[in-house]
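Hello,

Following up on my earlier ticket. Below are the two sequence lines again, exactly as submitted.
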Amino acid sequence: MNSVIDSMMKIFGSLGTGNSALGLVLAVVIAGLVVFTIMAVMAIVAVYFERKVSAFMQDRIGPMEVGIFGFKGGKQFWGGIGQTLADTVKLLVKEDILPKEADKKLMIMAPFIIFIASFLTFIGVPLSDGLVVSDFNIGVFYIMAAGSIGVIGIILAGWSSNNKWSLYGALRSAAQIISYEIPIGLSLMLVVIVVGSLNFGDIVAWQADHRWFFIHSPFAFIAFIIYVIAGVAETNRTPFDIPEAESELVAGWMTEYSGFRWSIFFMSEYANVLIISIIASIIFLGGWLSPLAIFGVHVSWLEGPLWGLFWIFSKAVFFVFVMMWFRWTFPRLRVDQLMYFCWKVLIPFALANLIFISVWELIF
Amino acid sequence: MYTDFAPILIFIFFALLLIGALFVLQNIISPKQNKGGDKLNTYECGEVPEGSAWVKFNIRFYVVALIFIIFDVEILFMFPWAVVFQKVGLLALVEMLIFLLILIVGYAYVWVKDDLSWVKMTVRYGRGRYAPLQKKGSDS
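Thanks for your patience. The regenerated structure is below:
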């Protein structure tokens, strides 16, 4: 598997720019722009999707007023299709407010760190066969490492706001995110044990040769469940949204943020949801393989990088939908229940799972 | 020549520039008037804020962070093991079981000492209808 940077460097080389360092920077900047576009579009689409899905689940209509290009659907799903675009513009032209009691330097810094965390994670996330910014041989490990930088930004945001809601939200969020990182790491380790590689390309190639990982063994299925639960918690979504619980902490660590700074948090949050969904579909659901492969049927025109992009996004959107479904199905946990669930349920199960899969791999 | 990891550094600077540029753009197009009054007060449900939020907070957060570090380092050590597990076979399993056993002893210790639960019951709730809330062995 080669990376996007490699391909672009080759093209620049053939154009004869000569300076390879310049070519590298140019290639990375282009890739960065694409990643930023994906993040922004994802946030805009996901907010609309979430509002509509929530609305239909509660027998409402949801956004229905703002159309786009004179197109307005009324009561259908695409009713207020321009709503989030309008919201984006609104956020951009809002007055910029920093409370006078706050630590302004840190408060300005926090959105940068949170954005960088999810932006950096995208370097290692493959979107299809060969469609990855940089093809690390330690892919799985890199995703975990880069994804956990965000906690620093959250703590900074909460502490610097000088607001009690923010402080409590940030501390809860930090405790939650670092705790749920452990079940995620332990459940991802299962696939590493079986495949013997940390590279996403190798993992998907293994699944193409054998079978999709979530039906590999009973333990792999348990790991899949653990990963999905911990992934929902890692992105601070309901039922694990204690850090932003509207009814007890106004908006958690985001309370003092408004306008554009807040929208950066929002963008990173939805980017994290997308990353968690993509990783789940790569590791457990065969990534860019077509679903027909599960039955041993190989249709040649349904494979290839572009179809891979389609399949991986279908799987990821399914996971995003499941997360929204969770939101309107499960009530919010209490903070002590949250810690209980992580430390006394998920981690023992994940550890036992790890030992069992090792034995299983030795026997079979 | 470049390594796979060169994009990380470039991405960091690029993200700083990108977000910085967006903030500058926002600064230009957003309204600037009317920054006085109570608007810049800290939000506390509409009341005048009671003191600063920079207070000492519960030690629980610290304990969770400590336990997390132990587990995270353990995961860090287990990844190389997981990669070569298939090649080494039974020996790898035995070695990792010994490693995990040491960890699990510590894990059991914090569990028994009630450090994993968010609310550590150290107060004797006493009598009447609160009696069932009292936890054995954790008072004194």
